[in-house]
Design a protein that fits this description.
The protein is an alpha/beta fold and 273 residues long. The chain folds into 2 domains: 58 residues; 187 residues, Rossmann fold (3-Layer(aba) Sandwich). Helices cover 41% and strands 19% of the residues. It has 13 helices and 9 strands. The strands form 2 sheets. Strands 5-4-3-6-7-9-8 form a 7-stranded mixed sheet, sandwiched between helices. Strand 4, helix 8 and strand 5 form a beta-alpha-beta unit. The mean pLDDT is 95.
Length: 273
């Protein structure tokens, strides 16, 4: 079977299974199997090639990023797999805003794959960035990404700890977090490709989805330097609740930022100077 024939058949199967980007996913699967770029794949469509095993995995709902083992985030490729939340492009909203600020030390709470911490460190040379996660499995992915992106030595200081019981030796200029925020009700509505595969610990704290923000708010003043900044990703319907929690904790300069699709995505706050 030629690559062209396999891609056409795979696209039909993926589309029938409800995959929105069926053509692109078929190309990614085959290119990954053949260990070639998509450009090379498409330039040689009449050569033989098929990836039935990978297609079967995708049709069972396994996330494409887990199958290929990588996901692009802010122009870099991050390794991901079971135990680590797959980076989403909407989270780049947080990076864009953080890079507008003046900071040297930063903490990423619930670092997962390390995409936030490692991107901040790479984009801000000379910074001192820390990544923290309660999950050893997730932290292993973060350290693997650090090793691949920074072969000359770790760029981020990693901590295996519960963020809500951990006490840093010095306060930070910036704290960022993409915490679990999906409500119990919303979890039941998630696509199987997310619900059945990605770590629930990184998706939802249960209940109203706000527990992580309550804990972050309670500790922000102790963990941030005077005039320090706090930036968190939120669900699109949580802006008012999260902003209220931060205001009640004594944080100021509250702002809500939209993502690329215009949905509320990031809440920013500042410690009084």
């Amino acid at each position: 079977m030629t690559r062209r024939e396999w891609l056409a058949a795979a696209e039909v199967q993926l589309a029938s299974a409800g995959m929105d980007a069926a053509r692109l996913e078929a190309q990614v699967l085959l290119a990954h199997h053949l260990k070639v770029t998509r450009a090379s794949l498409l330039a040689n469509l009449d050569e033989p090639g098929e990836a039935d095993d990978l297609l079967a995995q995708r049709l069972k709902g396994e996330p494409l990023a887990y199958i290929t083992g990588v996901r692009e985030f802010y122009g870099r490729m991050f390794r991901v797999g079971p135990g680590a939340l797959i980076p989403r492009h909407e989270t780049e909203t947080l990076i864009n805003e953080a890079l507008k600020l003046n900071w040297r030390t930063a903490l990423d709470v619930g670092t997962g794959s390390g995409c936030l911490a490692l991107t901040l460190a790479a984009e801000r040379p000379g910074s001192d960035v820390h990544g923290l996660d309660v999950s050893e499995e997730a932290l292993a992915w973060a350290k693997k990404n650090d090793a691949e992106l920074n072969p000359d030595g770790e760029r981020v200081t990693w901590h295996h700890a519960d963020a809500f019981r951990w006490h840093p030796t010095e306060p930070f200029d910036l704290i960022v977090s993409n915490p679990p925020y999906i409500t119990t009700a919303e979890m039941a509505e998630l696509a199987p490709g997310v619900l059945d595969w990605e770590p629930h610990l990184a998706l939802s704290p249960g209940g109203d989805g706000l527990d992580a923000y309550r804990a972050i708010a309670a500790r922000a003043l102790a963990h941030l330097a005077p005039s320090g900044r706090l930036m968190v990703e939120i669900g699109p319907r949580q802006a008012a609740d999260v902003a209220a929690l931060f205001a009640s904790a004594g944080l100021q300069s509250l702002r809500v930022l939209p993502d690329f699709d215009g949905r509320d995505r990031v809440v920013c706050a500042q410690v009084p100077g």
